[in-house]
Amino acid sequence: MPNQEEMVGTAHRDVGDRTAPSWWLGRSPDPTAARLPAGSRLDGDVRCDVVIVGGGFTGLWSAIRLAEADPGCAVVVLERECVGFGASGRNGGFAMTMVGRSLHDLVRKVGPGPALRVHRAMVQTLDEIEGFCRAEAIAADLSRPGLLTVSNGPEQDVRIRQDLEAAERLGLNDLRGVSAAGCRELLAAQGMRCGHVEDAALLVDPAALVRGLAAAARRRGVRVLERTPVEEVRVGPGGVRALTRFGSVRADRGLIATNAYAHAIPRLRRFLFTVCASITLTEPLTAAQWAQVGWERRMGVEDRRVMPHFHRPTPDGRILWGGRDAPHSPIGPDPRRDRDPRILRRLEETFRQTFPQLADVRLTHGWGGPVAATVSCLPRAGWLRGGRLAYALGYSGHGVGPSALMGRVVADLLLGRATERLELPLVTRRAVPLPPEPLRGAILGMAQRALQAADDHGGARGPVGRLAVRLLR
Ligand SMILES: Cc1cc2nc3c(=O)[nH]c(=O)nc-3n(C[C@H](O)[C@H](O)[C@H](O)COP(=O)(O)OP(=O)(O)OC[C@H]3O[C@@H](n4cnc5c(N)ncnc54)[C@H](O)[C@@H]3O)c2cc1C
Fold first, then answer.
1. pLDDT grade, residue 29 (50/70/90)?
2. What is 6-90+207-272+376-428's CATH number, 3.20.19.10, 1.20.920.10, 3.50.50.60, 1.20.58.100?
3. How much is the pTM?
4. Which residues contact 223 (CB under 8 A, 6 or more apart)?
5. Which residues line ligand 1 (CB under 6 A)?
Protein backbone atom coordinates (compact mmCIF):
# COMPACT_ATOMS: atom_id res chain seq x y z
CA MET A 1 0.00 0.00 0.00
CA PRO A 2 2.50 2.66 -1.04
CA ASN A 3 1.94 6.43 -1.34
CA GLN A 4 -1.80 6.72 -0.74
CA GLU A 5 -1.49 5.40 2.80
CA GLU A 6 -2.45 7.74 5.60
CA MET A 7 -0.52 7.55 8.87
CA VAL A 8 -2.21 7.51 12.26
CA GLY A 9 0.40 7.73 15.01
CA THR A 10 -0.90 5.89 18.08
CA ALA A 11 2.10 5.62 20.35
CA HIS A 12 1.86 7.47 23.62
CA ARG A 13 4.97 8.25 25.62
CA ASP A 14 5.74 6.86 29.05
CA VAL A 15 3.17 4.54 30.64
CA GLY A 16 4.24 4.65 34.30
CA ASP A 17 4.00 1.80 36.80
CA ARG A 18 4.02 -1.38 34.75
CA THR A 19 3.91 -3.76 37.66
CA ALA A 20 0.75 -2.89 39.60
CA PRO A 21 -1.17 0.08 38.23
CA SER A 22 -4.07 -0.80 40.58
CA TRP A 23 -4.87 -2.97 43.58
CA TRP A 24 -7.27 -4.97 41.37
CA LEU A 25 -4.49 -5.83 38.89
CA GLY A 26 -2.04 -6.68 41.67
CA ARG A 27 -4.57 -8.74 43.63
CA SER A 28 -4.59 -11.74 41.37
CA PRO A 29 -1.36 -12.42 39.53
CA ASP A 30 -1.13 -11.11 35.98
CA PRO A 31 -0.35 -14.19 33.94
CA THR A 32 1.87 -12.21 31.60
CA ALA A 33 3.68 -9.97 34.11
CA ALA A 34 6.51 -12.23 35.13
CA ARG A 35 7.13 -14.31 32.06
CA LEU A 36 5.44 -13.91 28.73
CA PRO A 37 3.80 -17.15 27.62
CA ALA A 38 4.85 -18.22 24.13
CA GLY A 39 2.76 -16.60 21.43
CA SER A 40 1.32 -13.78 23.49
CA ARG A 41 3.44 -11.05 21.87
CA LEU A 42 3.42 -10.22 18.16
CA ASP A 43 6.29 -11.86 16.37
CA GLY A 44 6.66 -11.09 12.66
CA ASP A 45 4.12 -10.00 10.07
CA VAL A 46 0.55 -11.19 10.34
CA ARG A 47 -2.53 -10.92 8.11
CA CYS A 48 -6.12 -10.86 9.45
CA ASP A 49 -9.58 -9.38 8.79
CA VAL A 50 -9.79 -6.94 11.71
CA VAL A 51 -6.98 -5.50 13.83
CA ILE A 52 -7.91 -3.89 17.15
CA VAL A 53 -5.51 -1.54 18.95
CA GLY A 54 -6.12 -1.64 22.73
CA GLY A 55 -6.83 -4.54 25.07
CA GLY A 56 -9.33 -2.98 27.49
CA PHE A 57 -13.07 -3.57 27.77
CA THR A 58 -13.78 -1.84 24.43
CA GLY A 59 -11.21 -3.73 22.40
CA LEU A 60 -12.06 -7.11 23.95
CA TRP A 61 -15.88 -6.83 23.85
CA SER A 62 -15.53 -5.73 20.22
CA ALA A 63 -13.29 -8.70 19.41
CA ILE A 64 -15.71 -11.11 21.08
CA ARG A 65 -18.79 -9.74 19.33
CA LEU A 66 -16.98 -9.71 15.95
CA ALA A 67 -15.91 -13.32 16.37
CA GLU A 68 -19.42 -14.35 17.42
CA ALA A 69 -21.18 -12.44 14.63
CA ASP A 70 -18.82 -13.79 11.98
CA PRO A 71 -16.85 -16.85 13.10
CA GLY A 72 -14.86 -16.66 9.87
CA CYS A 73 -13.56 -13.19 10.76
CA ALA A 74 -9.91 -13.36 11.87
CA VAL A 75 -9.37 -10.81 14.65
CA VAL A 76 -6.09 -9.69 16.24
CA VAL A 77 -5.99 -7.48 19.37
CA LEU A 78 -2.75 -5.61 20.02
CA GLU A 79 -2.21 -4.40 23.59
CA ARG A 80 0.78 -2.31 24.56
CA GLU A 81 1.13 -3.67 28.10
CA CYS A 82 -1.15 -6.37 29.53
CA VAL A 83 -4.92 -6.58 29.04
CA GLY A 84 -6.62 -4.22 31.47
CA PHE A 85 -3.54 -2.03 31.87
CA GLY A 86 -5.58 1.11 31.09
CA ALA A 87 -8.71 2.29 32.89
CA SER A 88 -10.35 -1.15 32.51
CA GLY A 89 -8.09 -2.68 35.16
CA ARG A 90 -8.12 0.32 37.49
CA ASN A 91 -11.73 1.41 37.90
CA GLY A 92 -14.29 1.15 40.68
CA GLY A 93 -16.07 -1.80 39.07
CA PHE A 94 -19.47 -0.08 38.88
CA ALA A 95 -21.31 -1.35 35.79
CA MET A 96 -24.24 1.04 35.47
CA THR A 97 -26.97 1.83 32.97
CA MET A 98 -25.66 5.38 32.95
CA VAL A 99 -24.33 6.65 29.65
CA GLY A 100 -22.90 10.13 30.07
CA ARG A 101 -23.46 11.91 33.39
CA SER A 102 -26.99 10.89 34.39
CA LEU A 103 -30.39 9.94 32.98
CA HIS A 104 -31.52 13.56 33.18
CA ASP A 105 -28.43 14.67 31.33
CA LEU A 106 -28.92 12.02 28.63
CA VAL A 107 -32.52 13.12 28.01
CA ARG A 108 -31.42 16.75 27.88
CA LYS A 109 -28.67 16.00 25.36
CA VAL A 110 -30.34 13.53 22.98
CA GLY A 111 -34.10 13.88 23.61
CA PRO A 112 -36.51 11.46 25.33
CA GLY A 113 -36.90 8.93 22.47
CA PRO A 114 -33.20 8.25 21.85
CA ALA A 115 -32.50 8.44 25.62
CA LEU A 116 -35.05 5.71 26.23
CA ARG A 117 -33.48 3.51 23.53
CA VAL A 118 -30.02 3.98 25.05
CA HIS A 119 -31.32 3.24 28.54
CA ARG A 120 -33.12 0.07 27.40
CA ALA A 121 -30.03 -1.06 25.50
CA MET A 122 -27.99 -0.55 28.68
CA VAL A 123 -30.41 -2.53 30.87
CA GLN A 124 -30.11 -5.37 28.37
CA THR A 125 -26.31 -4.94 28.23
CA LEU A 126 -25.96 -5.36 32.00
CA ASP A 127 -28.00 -8.58 31.78
CA GLU A 128 -25.69 -9.69 28.99
CA ILE A 129 -22.55 -8.98 31.05
CA GLU A 130 -23.97 -11.08 33.88
CA GLY A 131 -25.02 -13.88 31.51
CA PHE A 132 -21.65 -13.81 29.72
CA CYS A 133 -19.69 -14.11 32.98
CA ARG A 134 -21.88 -17.04 34.02
CA ALA A 135 -21.62 -18.82 30.66
CA GLU A 136 -17.85 -18.30 30.38
CA ALA A 137 -17.17 -19.03 34.07
CA ILE A 138 -15.49 -15.63 34.54
CA ALA A 139 -14.84 -15.27 38.28
CA ALA A 140 -15.26 -11.50 38.40
CA ASP A 141 -17.03 -11.41 41.82
CA LEU A 142 -20.06 -10.04 40.02
CA SER A 143 -22.99 -8.99 42.20
CA ARG A 144 -26.19 -7.06 41.61
CA PRO A 145 -26.79 -5.16 44.86
CA GLY A 146 -28.07 -2.03 43.06
CA LEU A 147 -26.74 1.51 42.97
CA LEU A 148 -27.60 4.16 45.56
CA THR A 149 -27.06 7.69 44.26
CA VAL A 150 -27.15 10.26 47.07
CA SER A 151 -27.28 14.01 47.48
CA ASN A 152 -24.94 15.73 49.91
CA GLY A 153 -26.10 19.30 49.29
CA PRO A 154 -28.82 21.54 47.84
CA GLU A 155 -27.32 21.53 44.30
CA GLN A 156 -27.28 17.75 44.39
CA ASP A 157 -30.90 17.61 45.66
CA VAL A 158 -31.88 19.31 42.40
CA ARG A 159 -29.97 16.74 40.33
CA ILE A 160 -31.55 13.81 42.19
CA ARG A 161 -35.00 15.31 41.55
CA GLN A 162 -34.17 15.87 37.88
CA ASP A 163 -33.11 12.22 37.47
CA LEU A 164 -36.37 11.01 39.01
CA GLU A 165 -38.37 13.38 36.78
CA ALA A 166 -36.47 12.13 33.71
CA ALA A 167 -37.27 8.51 34.63
CA GLU A 168 -40.94 9.40 35.09
CA ARG A 169 -41.02 11.22 31.78
CA LEU A 170 -39.61 8.15 30.04
CA GLY A 171 -42.13 5.92 31.80
CA LEU A 172 -39.38 4.01 33.63
CA ASN A 173 -40.03 2.54 37.05
CA ASP A 174 -36.49 1.31 37.68
CA LEU A 175 -35.30 4.43 39.53
CA ARG A 176 -36.80 4.79 43.04
CA GLY A 177 -36.55 7.94 45.13
CA VAL A 178 -35.21 7.51 48.68
CA SER A 179 -35.52 9.93 51.62
CA ALA A 180 -32.63 10.83 53.95
CA ALA A 181 -33.92 8.25 56.43
CA GLY A 182 -34.18 5.68 53.62
CA CYS A 183 -30.55 6.34 52.65
CA ARG A 184 -29.46 5.89 56.27
CA GLU A 185 -31.22 2.52 56.40
CA LEU A 186 -28.98 1.41 53.53
CA LEU A 187 -25.72 2.93 54.81
CA ALA A 188 -24.61 4.76 57.97
CA ALA A 189 -22.80 7.61 56.20
CA GLN A 190 -22.79 11.32 57.02
CA GLY A 191 -24.41 14.04 54.96
CA MET A 192 -26.96 12.13 52.86
CA ARG A 193 -30.06 14.29 52.24
CA CYS A 194 -31.96 12.15 49.71
CA GLY A 195 -31.18 9.82 46.81
CA HIS A 196 -32.37 7.24 44.35
CA VAL A 197 -31.81 3.53 43.92
CA GLU A 198 -31.42 1.62 40.67
CA ASP A 199 -31.54 -2.16 40.95
CA ALA A 200 -30.08 -2.97 37.52
CA ALA A 201 -26.51 -1.90 38.41
CA LEU A 202 -23.75 -4.47 38.87
CA LEU A 203 -20.50 -4.50 40.83
CA VAL A 204 -17.55 -6.39 39.38
CA ASP A 205 -13.85 -7.00 39.90
CA PRO A 206 -12.77 -5.11 36.78
CA ALA A 207 -9.35 -6.76 36.42
CA ALA A 208 -10.85 -10.24 36.67
CA LEU A 209 -13.51 -9.25 34.15
CA VAL A 210 -11.08 -7.84 31.60
CA ARG A 211 -8.79 -10.86 31.91
CA GLY A 212 -11.82 -13.14 31.63
CA LEU A 213 -12.83 -11.33 28.44
CA ALA A 214 -9.35 -11.85 26.99
CA ALA A 215 -9.60 -15.58 27.73
CA ALA A 216 -13.12 -15.73 26.22
CA ALA A 217 -11.87 -13.89 23.12
CA ARG A 218 -8.98 -16.35 22.76
CA ARG A 219 -11.43 -19.28 23.04
CA ARG A 220 -13.25 -17.76 20.06
CA GLY A 221 -10.08 -17.77 18.00
CA VAL A 222 -9.09 -14.12 18.54
CA ARG A 223 -5.34 -13.56 18.84
CA VAL A 224 -4.86 -11.27 21.87
CA LEU A 225 -1.23 -10.13 21.76
CA GLU A 226 0.23 -8.28 24.73
CA ARG A 227 3.41 -6.24 25.34
CA THR A 228 3.01 -5.07 21.75
CA PRO A 229 2.80 -1.27 21.45
CA VAL A 230 1.43 -0.12 18.12
CA GLU A 231 3.58 2.73 16.90
CA GLU A 232 1.60 3.70 13.87
CA VAL A 233 -1.48 2.68 11.93
CA ARG A 234 -1.44 3.17 8.18
CA VAL A 235 -4.69 3.27 6.25
CA GLY A 236 -4.93 3.00 2.48
CA PRO A 237 -7.20 1.63 -0.23
CA GLY A 238 -5.80 -1.85 0.40
CA GLY A 239 -6.60 -1.88 4.10
CA VAL A 240 -5.02 -1.11 7.45
CA ARG A 241 -1.52 -1.84 8.73
CA ALA A 242 -0.61 -1.68 12.41
CA LEU A 243 3.14 -1.27 12.79
CA THR A 244 5.04 -2.35 15.89
CA ARG A 245 8.68 -2.96 16.63
CA PHE A 246 8.03 -6.73 16.69
CA GLY A 247 6.28 -6.90 13.32
CA SER A 248 3.13 -5.67 11.65
CA VAL A 249 -0.51 -6.65 11.31
CA ARG A 250 -2.20 -6.13 7.96
CA ALA A 251 -6.02 -6.20 7.98
CA ASP A 252 -9.05 -5.18 5.93
CA ARG A 253 -10.38 -3.04 8.76
CA GLY A 254 -9.18 -1.73 12.08
CA LEU A 255 -10.42 -0.32 15.38
CA ILE A 256 -8.81 2.22 17.67
CA ALA A 257 -9.85 1.16 21.18
CA THR A 258 -7.21 3.03 23.16
CA ASN A 259 -9.62 5.41 24.93
CA ALA A 260 -7.61 8.13 26.75
CA TYR A 261 -4.41 7.06 24.96
CA ALA A 262 -6.09 8.15 21.71
CA HIS A 263 -4.88 11.59 22.78
CA ALA A 264 -1.95 10.70 20.51
CA ILE A 265 -4.27 10.90 17.46
CA PRO A 266 -4.97 14.55 16.55
CA ARG A 267 -8.33 13.90 14.88
CA LEU A 268 -9.67 12.17 17.99
CA ARG A 269 -8.03 14.66 20.35
CA ARG A 270 -10.15 17.33 18.68
CA PHE A 271 -13.21 16.16 20.66
CA LEU A 272 -11.55 14.17 23.43
CA PHE A 273 -9.74 15.31 26.57
CA THR A 274 -8.12 13.44 29.44
CA VAL A 275 -8.86 13.75 33.13
CA CYS A 276 -7.17 11.70 35.85
CA ALA A 277 -9.44 9.84 38.27
CA SER A 278 -8.29 8.35 41.58
CA ILE A 279 -9.26 5.68 44.07
CA THR A 280 -8.25 4.82 47.63
CA LEU A 281 -8.87 1.61 49.51
CA THR A 282 -9.16 0.74 53.21
CA GLU A 283 -7.74 -2.30 54.90
CA PRO A 284 -10.31 -5.12 55.32
CA LEU A 285 -12.95 -4.13 57.89
CA THR A 286 -13.77 -6.37 60.86
CA ALA A 287 -17.31 -7.69 61.31
CA ALA A 288 -17.81 -5.10 64.07
CA GLN A 289 -16.72 -2.27 61.76
CA TRP A 290 -19.07 -3.50 59.01
CA ALA A 291 -21.88 -3.48 61.58
CA GLN A 292 -21.04 0.17 62.32
CA VAL A 293 -21.55 1.15 58.68
CA GLY A 294 -24.71 -0.97 58.36
CA TRP A 295 -24.06 -1.58 54.68
CA GLU A 296 -26.02 -4.82 54.61
CA ARG A 297 -26.94 -4.80 50.92
CA ARG A 298 -23.33 -3.98 50.03
CA MET A 299 -24.55 -1.77 47.20
CA GLY A 300 -22.50 0.66 45.15
CA VAL A 301 -22.89 4.30 46.20
CA GLU A 302 -22.27 7.48 44.25
CA ASP A 303 -23.01 11.08 45.14
CA ARG A 304 -24.30 13.70 42.71
CA ARG A 305 -21.40 16.13 42.68
CA VAL A 306 -20.32 17.12 39.19
CA MET A 307 -17.18 15.10 39.86
CA PRO A 308 -18.72 12.46 42.08
CA HIS A 309 -17.42 10.38 44.93
CA PHE A 310 -18.10 6.67 44.53
CA HIS A 311 -17.74 3.94 47.10
CA ARG A 312 -18.36 0.24 47.35
CA PRO A 313 -17.33 -2.79 49.36
CA THR A 314 -14.70 -5.02 47.76
CA PRO A 315 -15.07 -8.81 47.64
CA ASP A 316 -12.51 -9.18 50.47
CA GLY A 317 -14.26 -6.74 52.81
CA ARG A 318 -12.55 -3.39 52.21
CA ILE A 319 -14.16 -0.08 51.24
CA LEU A 320 -13.14 1.35 47.90
CA TRP A 321 -13.47 5.13 47.97
CA GLY A 322 -12.89 7.05 44.77
CA GLY A 323 -13.63 10.17 42.79
CA ARG A 324 -13.61 13.82 43.98
CA ASP A 325 -10.79 15.53 42.05
CA ALA A 326 -10.27 14.65 38.41
CA PRO A 327 -7.75 17.16 37.07
CA HIS A 328 -7.51 17.80 33.37
CA SER A 329 -4.23 16.54 31.91
CA PRO A 330 -3.23 18.56 28.84
CA ILE A 331 -0.75 15.88 27.74
CA GLY A 332 -3.24 12.99 27.79
CA PRO A 333 -2.59 10.05 30.16
CA ASP A 334 0.07 11.18 32.62
CA PRO A 335 1.66 8.46 34.79
CA ARG A 336 2.79 11.13 37.28
CA ARG A 337 -0.90 11.49 38.17
CA ASP A 338 -1.34 7.77 38.82
CA ARG A 339 -0.51 8.21 42.49
CA ASP A 340 -0.88 11.91 43.22
CA PRO A 341 -0.42 12.29 47.01
CA ARG A 342 -2.39 15.56 47.16
CA ILE A 343 -5.41 14.03 45.44
CA LEU A 344 -5.23 10.88 47.57
CA ARG A 345 -5.03 13.02 50.73
CA ARG A 346 -8.13 14.96 49.68
CA LEU A 347 -9.91 11.67 49.03
CA GLU A 348 -8.97 10.45 52.51
CA GLU A 349 -10.33 13.70 53.96
CA THR A 350 -13.83 13.09 52.54
CA PHE A 351 -13.70 9.41 53.49
CA ARG A 352 -13.03 10.42 57.13
CA GLN A 353 -15.86 12.97 57.05
CA THR A 354 -18.30 10.45 55.61
CA PHE A 355 -17.44 7.57 57.94
CA PRO A 356 -16.30 9.11 61.27
CA GLN A 357 -17.08 5.77 62.94
CA LEU A 358 -14.16 4.28 60.95
CA ALA A 359 -11.54 6.70 62.29
CA ASP A 360 -9.24 3.77 63.17
CA VAL A 361 -9.43 2.12 59.76
CA ARG A 362 -6.29 2.56 57.67
CA LEU A 363 -6.25 3.45 53.99
CA THR A 364 -3.75 1.04 52.48
CA HIS A 365 -3.85 1.60 48.72
CA GLY A 366 -4.31 4.43 46.26
CA TRP A 367 -4.02 4.71 42.50
CA GLY A 368 -5.32 6.61 39.53
CA GLY A 369 -5.95 6.23 35.86
CA PRO A 370 -6.76 8.15 32.72
CA VAL A 371 -10.35 8.91 31.75
CA ALA A 372 -11.23 9.95 28.18
CA ALA A 373 -13.94 12.59 28.33
CA THR A 374 -16.00 14.35 25.70
CA VAL A 375 -17.70 17.73 26.04
CA SER A 376 -21.13 16.06 26.01
CA CYS A 377 -19.82 13.27 28.30
CA LEU A 378 -21.26 10.77 25.80
CA PRO A 379 -19.04 8.04 24.34
CA ARG A 380 -18.72 7.81 20.62
CA ALA A 381 -18.10 5.27 17.87
CA GLY A 382 -17.43 6.22 14.28
CA TRP A 383 -15.06 6.07 11.35
CA LEU A 384 -11.67 7.70 11.50
CA ARG A 385 -11.20 6.71 7.90
CA GLY A 386 -14.45 5.67 6.17
CA GLY A 387 -15.01 1.93 5.89
CA ARG A 388 -11.48 1.07 7.07
CA LEU A 389 -10.49 2.43 10.46
CA ALA A 390 -13.08 2.93 13.22
CA TYR A 391 -12.86 4.18 16.80
CA ALA A 392 -14.93 3.68 19.96
CA LEU A 393 -14.11 5.70 23.07
CA GLY A 394 -14.86 8.70 25.32
CA TYR A 395 -16.96 7.17 28.14
CA SER A 396 -16.19 10.12 30.44
CA GLY A 397 -15.51 7.83 33.41
CA HIS A 398 -18.53 5.53 32.96
CA GLY A 399 -17.37 2.86 30.52
CA VAL A 400 -17.59 -0.44 32.43
CA GLY A 401 -21.18 -1.12 31.30
CA PRO A 402 -21.35 0.95 28.09
CA SER A 403 -18.15 -0.60 26.64
CA ALA A 404 -20.06 -3.91 26.37
CA LEU A 405 -22.78 -2.19 24.31
CA MET A 406 -20.02 -0.53 22.31
CA GLY A 407 -18.62 -3.97 21.46
CA ARG A 408 -21.87 -4.79 19.66
CA VAL A 409 -21.97 -1.36 17.98
CA VAL A 410 -18.41 -1.85 16.71
CA ALA A 411 -19.19 -5.33 15.37
CA ASP A 412 -22.18 -3.91 13.43
CA LEU A 413 -20.07 -1.04 12.12
CA LEU A 414 -17.09 -3.12 11.03
CA LEU A 415 -19.20 -5.90 9.51
CA GLY A 416 -21.32 -3.37 7.63
CA ARG A 417 -24.60 -4.48 9.23
CA ALA A 418 -27.42 -1.92 9.25
CA THR A 419 -28.82 -2.45 12.75
CA GLU A 420 -30.88 -0.29 15.13
CA ARG A 421 -27.80 -0.04 17.32
CA LEU A 422 -26.13 2.08 14.65
CA GLU A 423 -29.02 4.55 15.07
CA LEU A 424 -28.14 5.16 18.74
CA PRO A 425 -26.76 8.62 19.60
CA LEU A 426 -23.44 6.94 20.47
CA VAL A 427 -22.98 6.74 16.71
CA THR A 428 -25.25 9.40 15.20
CA ARG A 429 -24.61 12.36 17.52
CA ARG A 430 -21.93 14.70 16.27
CA ALA A 431 -19.05 15.18 18.69
CA VAL A 432 -18.62 18.71 20.02
CA PRO A 433 -15.16 19.89 18.87
CA LEU A 434 -12.77 21.59 21.28
CA PRO A 435 -10.92 24.76 20.24
CA PRO A 436 -7.23 24.49 19.37
CA GLU A 437 -4.46 25.19 21.92
CA PRO A 438 -3.81 27.38 23.81
CA LEU A 439 -7.55 28.10 24.17
CA ARG A 440 -8.37 24.42 24.69
CA GLY A 441 -6.12 23.98 27.74
CA ALA A 442 -7.17 27.31 29.23
CA ILE A 443 -10.92 26.55 28.92
CA LEU A 444 -10.70 22.99 30.16
CA GLY A 445 -8.46 23.93 33.09
CA MET A 446 -10.69 26.83 34.10
CA ALA A 447 -13.93 24.81 33.80
CA GLN A 448 -12.45 21.96 35.79
CA ARG A 449 -11.27 24.25 38.63
CA ALA A 450 -14.63 26.04 38.69
CA LEU A 451 -16.57 22.77 38.87
CA GLN A 452 -14.30 21.40 41.58
CA ALA A 453 -14.79 24.56 43.64
CA ALA A 454 -18.56 24.37 43.10
CA ASP A 455 -18.54 20.77 44.32
CA ASP A 456 -16.39 21.55 47.36
CA HIS A 457 -18.37 24.64 48.41
CA GLY A 458 -21.83 23.25 47.70
CA GLY A 459 -22.55 25.69 44.89
CA ALA A 460 -21.04 27.65 42.03
CA ARG A 461 -18.79 30.64 42.78
CA GLY A 462 -18.07 33.50 40.40
CA PRO A 463 -19.31 33.94 36.83
CA VAL A 464 -17.19 31.06 35.38
CA GLY A 465 -18.41 28.65 38.04
CA ARG A 466 -22.02 29.66 37.58
CA LEU A 467 -21.77 29.31 33.81
CA ALA A 468 -20.03 25.89 34.00
CA VAL A 469 -22.57 24.52 36.48
CA ARG A 470 -25.52 25.91 34.48
CA LEU A 471 -24.21 24.27 31.30
CA LEU A 472 -24.01 20.94 33.13
CA ARG A 473 -27.34 21.14 34.96
C1 LIG B 1 -9.87 5.49 38.60
C2 LIG B 1 -10.99 5.16 37.64
C3 LIG B 1 -12.22 4.73 38.12
C4 LIG B 1 -13.26 4.42 37.24
N5 LIG B 1 -14.41 3.88 37.74
C6 LIG B 1 -15.39 3.48 36.89
C7 LIG B 1 -16.54 2.80 37.37
O8 LIG B 1 -16.64 2.45 38.55
N9 LIG B 1 -17.53 2.52 36.49
C10 LIG B 1 -17.43 2.83 35.16
O11 LIG B 1 -18.36 2.57 34.40
N12 LIG B 1 -16.29 3.40 34.66
C13 LIG B 1 -15.27 3.71 35.49
N14 LIG B 1 -14.12 4.25 34.98
C15 LIG B 1 -13.98 4.37 33.52
C16 LIG B 1 -13.76 3.01 32.84
O17 LIG B 1 -12.73 2.34 33.51
C18 LIG B 1 -13.42 3.23 31.35
O19 LIG B 1 -14.47 3.95 30.75
C20 LIG B 1 -13.23 1.92 30.59
O21 LIG B 1 -12.38 1.04 31.27
C22 LIG B 1 -12.68 2.22 29.20
O23 LIG B 1 -12.27 1.00 28.60
P24 LIG B 1 -11.43 1.04 27.25
O25 LIG B 1 -11.17 -0.35 26.86
O26 LIG B 1 -12.13 1.91 26.27
O27 LIG B 1 -10.08 1.80 27.62
P28 LIG B 1 -8.78 1.28 28.42
O29 LIG B 1 -9.15 0.32 29.47
O30 LIG B 1 -8.01 2.48 28.84
O31 LIG B 1 -7.99 0.45 27.34
C32 LIG B 1 -7.16 1.04 26.37
C33 LIG B 1 -5.97 0.11 26.19
O34 LIG B 1 -5.21 0.53 25.05
C35 LIG B 1 -3.86 0.24 25.31
N36 LIG B 1 -3.04 1.04 24.39
C37 LIG B 1 -2.86 2.38 24.41
N38 LIG B 1 -2.05 2.77 23.41
C39 LIG B 1 -1.71 1.64 22.73
C40 LIG B 1 -0.87 1.38 21.60
N41 LIG B 1 -0.24 2.36 20.97
N42 LIG B 1 -0.73 0.10 21.18
C43 LIG B 1 -1.37 -0.92 21.81
N44 LIG B 1 -2.17 -0.72 22.91
C45 LIG B 1 -2.33 0.54 23.35
C46 LIG B 1 -3.68 0.61 26.78
O47 LIG B 1 -2.55 0.01 27.36
C48 LIG B 1 -5.01 0.14 27.37
O49 LIG B 1 -4.91 -1.16 27.91
C50 LIG B 1 -13.08 4.57 35.83
C51 LIG B 1 -11.84 5.02 35.34
C52 LIG B 1 -10.80 5.28 36.23
C53 LIG B 1 -9.46 5.73 35.67
1. low
2. 3.50.50.60
3. 0.95
4. 46, 48, 75, 76, 77
5. 10-12, 53-59, 78-81, 85-88, 90-94, 96, 229-230, 257-261, 277-279, 310, 322, 368-369, 371, 393, 395, 397-401, 403
